[in-house]
Amino acid sequence: MIRRNLPRGYSPTFYLAFLASLLFFGSLHLLITPLPMYIEEIGGGPVQVGLAGTSFAIAALVLRPYMGRLVDTQGRKRALLIGAAIFTIGPLSYTVATSLPAFQVARMFHGIGISAFTSAYYVLIADVTPPSRWGSALGLAGIAPSVSMIIASPMGTLLLQHTSYTLVFIVAGLMALASLVVVILIDEPRRVTIPSHSGDPGTAGVHDVARLRGVLAPSLVTLTLGLSYGSILSFLPLFALDRGLGNVGFFFTVSSLSIVASRSMAGRLSDRVGRLPVILPLVAILGLSLIGLNWTYAFGTLMVMAALQGTGFGGARVGLETMVVDNAPARARGAALSLVYFCFDTGIAASGLILGAVANLAGYGRGYLMVGGVCFLTLILFAAAMRRPATA
Predict the structure, then answer these.
(1) I need a labelling partner for 30 at 20 to 30 A (CA). Which of 172, 235, 274, 347 fits?
(2) Can you give the pLDDT at residue 1?
(3) DSSP 3-state assignment of 161?
(4) Dihedrals phi, psi of 59, to nearest 5 degrees
(5) Quick check: helix, strand or coil at residue 223?
(6) 33-51: average pLDDT
(7) At what angle do helices 213-243 and 34-41 cross, to 10 degrees?
(8) Choice between 185 and 233, residue whose per-residue pLDDT is larger
(9) Within 10 A of 85 (CB to CB), how many other CB atoms are there?
(10) 277-306 burial, b if ≥16 CB within 10 A, otherwise e?
């Protein structure tokens, strides 16, 4: 194994994993705008758009416990390979899914890939980073999806304007194939044993780590983050079209730039002042951004909401993920992070059903107002839970 460190003191494995993640999520984010349009093209509406997000998330969350165990017992690289391989095939399956039922099946298959990849990615990053730098490392590692969105989301819109859905899906598959090649080059380190902050070396599975408040509480907050993320990912293109807000790709670009900055700063700050003082104000900012969408009728206002949404979402998420890594036993780190993503996927799945129904009844703006309210309720409950003394 190559032992030398590269710039900023991170190992070659760290940077290879980062590149694999950049390409992996590029494949996903290329489809942000084309997929809702494709669903309408084959006869769907807001409910079917929501179901597409729900199908993707359900497949991911059902397999989360298994993937977490796979990461802990079979290694990080194997799960990364599975995820990248499925993401190579998944977009290609849309080219033959010309009916709504077939499309939903293809979405579920595609969702398995993100379950495998994300369950392993942050665990591998933690393995190759000293505990004192976990916040900084996870913050930096987490900007890969956002950078990919900055590039891939407008690219997907541009491709769709000048080519066809089929070509967009093929390009997404090729990006995932490139991610697979990079994963093959990763030299996974031998398993390291790092003492857990929880002092519980016997914790081994999802049910066990869920008993740790420092794992369960941030995981449940991540459910709300998933609800907000799913509502943006699935419905913002249609929301912007309905209100005539222009090219929605710029929203994702501004949001992603804010996520990059927020994750980087919040990760480093959380290493210095602690996780909770970083998480709480950023969840509040996320809630404000979603509430503000209800009163957004101009492109400039939409960009402001994008900046707030990216800042709140990105910074809060890295704080929550690092809090889980802090408290999870090293031998069950995969299980702990799989619980985080299980909750995140559950939030995405719920967003598709809830926002789709609310949009039909009262419009997309009211749906975002409701999700913003949920963010503030979550903030209050989380603050109370983490400040209460732990019971034996």
Answers:
(1) 347
(2) 40
(3) helix
(4) -60, -40
(5) helix
(6) 78
(7) 60
(8) 185
(9) 18
(10) ebbbebbebbbbbbbbbbebeeeeebbebb
Neighbours of 166 (CB within 10 A): 12
Q: Which of 109, 145, 135, 140 is nearest to 23 (CA)?
A: 145
Q: pLDDT digit string (tens) for 256-312?
A: 889 888 988 888 888 888 888 999 999 999 999 999 998 988 999 999 999 999 999
Alpha helices, DSSP H only, in 128-248?
134-141, 143-162, 165-185, 206-209, 213-243
Structural contact between residues 110 and 233, judged by C-beta atoms closer than 8 angstroms: no
Q: What angle do CA 260, 262, 266 make, to 5 degrees?
A: 125
Rounded distance between C-alpha atoms, residue 200 and residue 203, angstroms: 6
Instruction: Give the CA distances from residue 284 to residues 13, 229, 264, 311, 378, in Å, rounded to whole numbers and listed in that order.
Output: 35, 15, 19, 10, 10
Per-residue pLDDT, averaged over 52-78, amounts to 82
Instruction: For residue 337, give both structure tokens.
Output: 């992070």
Report the topology of domain 10-188+205-387.
Answer: Growth Hormone; Chain: A; (1.20.1250)
Instruction: Indicate if the pLDDT at residue 166 is higher than 90.
Output: no
Cα dihedral 124, 26, 32, 336, rounded to 10, equals: 0
The neighbour count for residue 9, using CB atoms within 10 Å, is 12
Per-residue pLDDT tens over the stretch 181-198: 999 999 887 654 444 444
d(CA 290, CA 231): 9
* Assigned token pair, 228: 């907000």
CB-based contact 285:311 (threshold 8 Å): yes
Which of 387, 388, 353, 391 lies closest to 370 in space, CA to CA? 353
Structure tokens at 99: 């009916």
The answer to whether residue 350 scores a pLDDT higher than 90 is: no
* List of residues 6+ apart from 111 with CB closer than 8 A: 55, 56, 57, 58, 59, 60
Q: What is the DSSP string of 284-306?
A: HHHHHHHHHHTT--SHHHHHHHH
The CA radius of gyration of the chain, in Å to the nearest whole number, is 20
Give which of 64, 229, 71, 85 is closest to 145, Cα–Cα. Answer: 229
Residue that has been written with the tokens 């933690």 in this structure: 126
Q: Which amino acid is at 373?
A: G
Q: What pLDDT is stored for residue 201 in this prediction?
A: 44
Q: Is the dihedral of CA 121, 90, 250, 223 positive or negative?
A: negative
